[in-house]
Specification:
- It is a single chain.
- The protein is of the alpha+beta class.
- It is built from eleven helices and 13 strands.
- A hairpin with a 2-residue loop joins strand 8 and strand 9.
- Helix 2 crosses helix 5, helix 3 packs across helix 4 and helix 8 runs parallel beside helix 11.
Length: about 325
């Protein structure tokens, strides 16, 4: 088990639990008693006779707890005995594998990628009969009293994996998983507000909450997704703002406005991604005795003079100097 700070005494904390760090004979007991019942206040038990394993990361922020887990087949329950802690959080559970849920007297089948909202003040059980990657998001229920059209009606009902707001939420949560910038209190508050916005839209936001989310959380999630797409395709020299906008069903102008809200432009962000990749490749000696023009092309630059000029302006040195230092 590793942690960045004590979860009970810090405004922001990150904690990782892995059965790989424990003796085989102790894995299940420690997992259930320490990580499950004491930390998460959930009863967690294996759902097969196969070898038990789990690897989970917890990030705690003011008013928000997120757990990312990779598990062998597992059953997760909020038992009547655990209700004594008084926790009435709203819990959103997402999984990449099919499962089943029993909550509020309903039996719900969940497909791969579906999510479901649960009440921590009521007993419930979610079961996954195969290995699964999970994300659980816990928030104070009181926060959502004025944000949702029907705070009770959204519980124990499946949310389709094809839901665009759900996909945006899952993508945004990945930012929080590493999240070194979240050490700053103002960034923590902003991230929590974004998650609240996206959750409200996923679960059925009121008109006012949906408008706020559109200006704040949804916009942040869209920009996050766009940046990930650009990073993935930055080596494509033909990448354009129109191309990326079409990919996300946005207008080119709206996409440009997303970047302008951060004081940059689409072109500047793409160039930065390409320069960063080029620097890493040069510094690692990746091209050996090849030409620097080859690495410029591989990173999406079609003009070697432009590449050299922008590289020097960005790093204060030339591509040749970086390559030569890596050889030394």
């Amino acid at each position: 088990m590793t942690n960045d700070t004590d979860l009970g005494n810090a405004e922001s904390a990150s904690f990782r639990f892995s059965t790989e760090t424990l003796p085989a004979a102790d894995r299940l007991g420690v997992f259930r008693e320490v990580f499950g019942q004491k930390m998460l206040r959930l009863d967690m038990e294996p759902f097969s006779s196969q070898g038990f394993r789990t690897d989970a990361t917890v990030r705690s922020l003011p008013g928000l707890n997120v757990v990312w887990g990779s598990n062998s087949p597992v059953r997760v329950s909020r038992t009547r005995q655990l209700l004594s802690d008084g926790n009435d959080d709203l819990l959103l559970q997402w999984a990449d594998a099919a499962g089943s849920c029993l909550h509020l007297g309903r039996e719900i089948a969940l497909g791969p990628g579906d999510a479901i909202a649960l009440s921590c003040s009521d007993v419930g059980r979610v079961t996954f009969a195969s290995s699964v990657n999970l994300i659980s998001v816990g928030v104070p229920r009181a926060v959502f009293g004025s944000l949702l059209r029907d705070a009770g009606g959204c519980l124990a009902r499946p949310i389709s994996a094809h839901s665009a707001p759900l996909q945006m939420l899952i993508g945004y949560l990945e930012l929080l998983r590493g999240g070194p910038a979240l050490a700053l209190p103002e960034m923590q508050k902003l991230a929590v507000a974004h998650v609240y916005d996206l959750l409200a839209v996923v679960l059925g936001a009121t008109r006012d909450a949906a408008q706020t989310a559109g200006r704040r959380g949804v916009r942040a999630a869209r920009l996050c997704a766009v940046k990930q797409e650009i990073a993935r395709r930055s080596s494509d020299g033909a990448l354009s703002v129109s191309d990326v906008a079409a990919r996300f069903r946005l207008t080119p102008r709206y996409l440009q406005m997303l970047f302008e809200s951060e004081g940059t432009t689409f072109t500047e962000f793409v160039r930065e991604q390409r320069l960063t990749r080029a620097y890493r490749m040069l510094a690692s000696g990746w091209i050996g005795h090849g030409k620097i023009a080859d690495i410029a092309l591989a990173c999406g630059f079609g003009d070697i003079s432009y590449f050299n000029r922008k590289f020097r302006a960005r790093y204060g040195t030339t591509p040749s100097d970086v390559r030569d230092r890596s050889r030394d």
